[in-house]
Amino acid sequence: MDVLFNSIDVRDLLSSPDIDDVNSPLSAPDLRLLIDSLQLRSVDIKSKVRQYILSHHSEFSTLFSQCSNVVSKSENLSSQVSDLIQLISDHPIEAQTKAVIDEILVKNREEKEKRELLGLLDVILELSDRLRFVKEEIKVGRVEHSAEALRELKAVLVTGNDEEKLPLVYGLLKDEWTECFEEMQEVLLQCMDNAVWFEQENNTVHLKYQLSIRGVDGIELHTILKAIDAVGILDYGLAKVADLMIKHVIMPVVSFRSTIVVEWINQESGNGVKANLKILPSADPNVVSIDGGSMYSVLIDVVKFITKSLCFENSTWMLCFGKLTWPRMSDLIVSNFLSKKVPDDASKLADFQKIVKCTSNFEASLKELMFIASSDGKDERLSKFADNVEVHFSSRQKVEILAKARNQLLQSDFRLSELFLQDGTRRNSKVKDDDNAESSSDLVVDLLFTSERCVVSEAASQLMKLVHGILKDVCLSSSRVGLGFYHSARDSLLLYEAIIPVKFERQLDSINHSAVLIHNDCHYLSQEILGLAFEIIMESLKLFIDTPHTLLYQALFCASNASLSRVLVLLSYEPERRPLLLFFIGGRIYRSDFPASMKELVVFADLAPRFQMLAEEVLQRQIKLVIYNLKQAIDGANGFQNTHQMKQYESAKLSIDQVIFILEKVYIIWHRLLLPSAYKRSMSMVLEEVFSRIANDILLLDDIAAEETLQLQRLIHLLFENLSSLLDSVLAINQTGKLQESPVQTLDDLIPSLQKLHKLADLLDMPLKSITAAWETDELINHGFKQSEVEDFIRAIFADSPLRKECLRRIESRYYQAFSYS
Question: Which residues form the ZW10 C-terminal helical domain (predicted)?
Fold first, then answer.
């Protein structure tokens, strides 16, 4: 049989040599050969199979016989199973068995339910009997037993029961328990009202130990309290007593309306034993303990009275009474005593430590008396307040400082005394030694980082004095308080930025000295803020007044700030400025007195750019207003046209007079108040606008008569004659400056249009050839004239002629020649 399982390889049946090539097709002879070979192999296989079957005939017969027996047995088994099923279906015994079992289960369930109902009925009867017992006990005044019963019934009827799953009778029993509870509560609270009361006439708190309930006498107060505790209304039962003690005892003691003396009296009367707490005014009502010792002593006596007479030294009752009383009691002590004792000066912080110690001892005594919990830190309200007194002190100081700074700024009016409106009170001059000068000398200040002086408002001067005073207090304070002072100083400075520009908004929209003072203030504050890290303690500077220059250079070597180093270099050459130099040196000693943890936190330099920007904004706003008014005045000249006509000339002259008036007004304000450098810069900008506008208007004229040239020249000379003192003031500031980092500037450098207008006045009566020669020698170019302006000017003045054409050609050729050279 192996031949049946061996595979036949068709390639073995072919004789073609390239049979392995899958791409070569088979030829017809090859196919016929393949068919014949397969037929021969098939016949061979059939022959071998037949021989194998014949040789194993007995084995195959046995196998077929066994298969026949298995089939016969399977049919027999199937017949038996069918008979069994038929037998079972004819006799259903299992259905009867199931019915019996179900009946047994029903009977057992009914029996169980009856037993449960009987048990529930027993419980209901027992609960009902106990509720009836409670009612009877309340009637006869045995509140202690009835309270215990109510507490036990509460666990059954009220606590942790799902009302939806309980029978209706439980709801009825619960309602009955509620009625008993309310009746018990009413009786107990009425007993407490009768046990503790306050007699207004004698200022006495009375405690009665033997009470009566519905005609039953001799019930002890201790029993009442136990009953109140049992039913779970201890806090409610003691609430009225706590209110009474707070109102009539604690509050008078804490508020210091009078010095209190506690008289503790135990007495027996016909109505039973009593305890009285009598409050009497002291024989000397003026004696008040500064550290609160007498107040705390009286409060301890009151708590002792409550502990022994009311709570019977029961810790649970005492803690409950303390929880009802202590929050309000501590708030009263804080508001009426501790908050008022918070020091208002850094030097008084040490004195407050006595109060802190007394307060700590007071709370320790309350813990011993079980009035407050010893393990709960939340009850240490007074100690926490006292420990945080530095925060309260800092908060109070900040409020007071900011209020003071705000009031100073709101009350400022920026009025100047006559001292500053007279000649000779310039920033660079010395203040006269008279009463007015002495009172106003604080308003003439030295700027720290320049060699200039300026006039500031009283608001800015007082504000910086306030800030310096605050920083002095920082040196005397702890880190927490010092940090609060530091923030107060910063906020005080920021108040100026918030208040002054808003308050003087109208003044900032007009030309007046108030706006200039605001500019000076902001510039002064920015300089002072930059120097705050190096200022304050002036006492230490006295050691350096006579210091030789050698030590000044040593101080310079030690200076770490670049701008400070520059100031030291500059000031070392000016003996009259040495106090300011020493002021800086002493500042380094001041910084060393700061608390160690604050030295890296105190920063003021970020505020300086804000004030510097505000100063520049105010000044630029004033400059724009001045320029706008000047342009409005010049517009009245109608471009200086037809000035040879009397009406037009008068109009132009009036316009020039208005310009002169505005500039003189600005000069009066700016020259006396602005910093020299700011005055020079601002006035130069304004004059440049005026001169350039007038020159441009004249150069734009397209036809100028001979008489008109004389009138225009007269107007220009009139302008210069009236502005000579103003121009001299600008030049004087430039010449009197001591520290020049660049060559001295002339008026022509500061005001380029000045020489142009001067030259224009000369051109108005200059011959044509002279004008042409001036252009060819670059004189006009050096004075700021353009080719087009010169050509238009010649066409406007001189009539068309061969000479004018020749001159214009020469001017144009000169321009191209200069252009080619460039």
Answer: 655-811
Angle between helices 234-245 and 315-333 (to 10 degrees): 40
Domain 661-821 annotated CATH 3.30.565.10? no
Q: What is the pTM of this model?
A: 0.57
Is 419:443 a contact under the CB 8 Å cutoff?
A: no
294 confidence band (pLDDT: 50, 70, 90) = confident
- Report the pLDDT value the prediction gives residue 148, as an integer from 0 to 100: 79
Computed over every residue of the chain, the mean pLDDT equals 78
Phi/psi zone of residue 645: left (φ > 0), alpha (ψ -120 to 50 degrees), beta? beta
How far apart CA 134 and CA 148 sit, in angstroms, is 9
Tokens 């802190």, located at residue? 356
Do 34 and 14 meet the contact criterion of CB atoms below 8 Å apart? yes
Checking phi first, is residue 197 left (phi over 0); if not, alpha (psi -120 to 50) or beta? beta
Report the distance separating Cα 531 and Cα 561, nearest Å.
10
| Cβ-Cβ contacts under 8 Å for 566 (sequence gap 6 or more) | none
Pairing of strands 196-199, 204-208: antiparallel
- Direct distance between the N- and C-terminal alpha carbons of the chain, in angstroms, rounded to an integer: 119
| Structural tokens at position 337 | 């005593």
Report pLDDT for 581: 44
> What is the C-alpha R_g of the chain?
57
pLDDT for position 721? 92
Instruction: Give the other-Cβ count within 10 Å of 783's Cβ.
Output: 20
* Measured distance CA(393)–CA(391) in Å, rounded: 5
Q: Which residue has the higher pLDDT, 25 or 105?
A: 105
Reference 414, options 517, 281, 542, 296; nearest CA is 517
**150/130 Cα distance (integer angstroms):** 9
pLDDT at 345: 74
Q: What is the pLDDT of residue 728?
A: 87
Closest CA to 709 of 760, 765, 656: 765
Amino acid identity for residue 193 in this structure: D
pLDDT tens digits for range 621-679: 999 999 999 999 999 989 899 888 899 999 999 999 999 999 999 999 998 888 888 99
Q: Is the dihedral of CA 458, 460, 461, 464 positive or negative?
A: positive
Q: What is the pLDDT of residue 327?
A: 92
Is 440 buried (19+), middle (13-18) or exposed (0-12) by CB count in 10 A?
A: buried
Domain range annotation of the chain: 2-55, 233-387, 661-821
Three-class DSSP category at 629 = helix
CA pair distance 340, 384, nearest whole angstrom: 16
Q: Do strands 216-220 and 210-213 pair parallel, antiparallel, or not at all (unpaired)?
A: antiparallel
Query: Within a 10 A sphere around the Cβ of 369, how many other Cβ atoms?
Result: 19
Residue 153 has pLDDT above 90, yes or no: no
- Which residues are bridge partners to 220 per DSSP? 210
Nearest CA to 682 out of 663, 660, 697, 661 is that of 663
The C-alpha atoms of residue 639 and residue 661 are separated, in whole angstroms, by: 19
Give which of 518, 499, 498 is closest to 508, Cα–Cα: 518
Q: Go through the chain and tell me how many residues it has.
A: 822
Region at 141 (left for phi over 0; alpha for psi -120 to 50; beta for the rest): left
pLDDT at 584 over 60: no
Angle subtended at Cα 22 by Cα 17 and Cα 25, rounded to the nearest 5 degrees? 70
E strand segments, 221-271: 260-269
- Alpha helices, H only, 434-512: 435-440, 458-475, 479-503, 505-508
| C-alpha separations of 336 from 327, 360, 793 in Å | 14, 17, 89
Task: Identify whether the C-beta of residue 231 lies closer than 8 Å to the C-beta of residue 147.
Answer: yes
Q: Kindly report, residue by residue over 326-362, the tens digit of the pLDDT.
A: 999 999 998 888 888 877 776 677 677 788 888 889 9
Per-residue pLDDT band for 543 (boundaries 50, 70, 90) equals very low
Yes or no: say if 454 and 447 are a contact pair by the CB < 8 Å rule.
yes
